[in-house]
Amino acid sequence: MKKFAKEFKDFISRGNVMDMAVGIIIGSAFTAIVNSLVADIINPILGIFGGLDFSGLSVKLRGDSVLTYGNFITAILNFLIMALIVFLIVKALNKAATIGKKKEDGTPAEPTEKECPYCKSMIPIGATKCAHCTSDLS
């Protein structure tokens, strides 16, 4: 039991688990921002063009049951807009990360493949026998 507790403690104290926990907390806060963006800005704009408020769409089933499929459509829109915003933020961060870096000196990288002189297929540079035509290479 002590070994299990130690392994669990080691697992929890790893950096990846802590990073994931921070990411989930920030993601929850970010979700509130995106939900507000969708509910307060995007849906009214969509309402101008389509004249519909998705959250009000529903179908009455038997008895008192109501199928509110408009809420589902709103959730899908929230997800798509959140994915778009996250994509744009990651793209901007990646671009910002490359701005400060120096460009390569322009020299080409060493080749990792060569052409077989017999069958003309590409093979690893260190190959002594072609994998395609089985010719011995010098």
TrEMBL record:
<feature type="transmembrane region" description="Helical">
    <location>
        <begin position="69"/>
        <end position="93"/>
    </location>
</feature>
<keyword id="KW-0407">Ion channel</keyword>
<dbReference type="GO" id="GO:0008381">
    <property type="term" value="F:mechanosensitive monoatomic ion channel activity"/>
</dbReference>
<keyword id="KW-0406">Ion transport</keyword>
<comment type="similarity">
    <text>Belongs to the MscL family.</text>
</comment>
<dbReference type="InterPro" id="IPR036019">
    <property type="entry name" value="MscL_channel"/>
</dbReference>
<dbReference type="InterPro" id="IPR037673">
    <property type="entry name" value="MSC/AndL"/>
</dbReference>
<dbReference type="GO" id="GO:0005886">
    <property type="term" value="C:plasma membrane"/>
</dbReference>
<keyword id="KW-0472">Membrane</keyword>
<comment type="function">
    <text>Channel that opens in response to stretch forces in the membrane lipid bilayer. May participate in the regulation of osmotic pressure changes within the cell.</text>
</comment>
<keyword id="KW-0813">Transport</keyword>
<keyword id="KW-1003">Cell membrane</keyword>
<comment type="subunit">
    <text>Homopentamer.</text>
</comment>
<keyword id="KW-1133">Transmembrane helix</keyword>
<dbReference type="InterPro" id="IPR001185">
    <property type="entry name" value="MS_channel"/>
</dbReference>
<dbReference type="InterPro" id="IPR019823">
    <property type="entry name" value="Mechanosensitive_channel_CS"/>
</dbReference>
<feature type="transmembrane region" description="Helical">
    <location>
        <begin position="21"/>
        <end position="49"/>
    </location>
</feature>
<protein>
    <recommendedName>
        <fullName>Large-conductance mechanosensitive channel</fullName>
    </recommendedName>
</protein>
<keyword id="KW-0812">Transmembrane</keyword>
<dbReference type="Pfam" id="PF01741">
    <property type="entry name" value="MscL"/>
</dbReference>
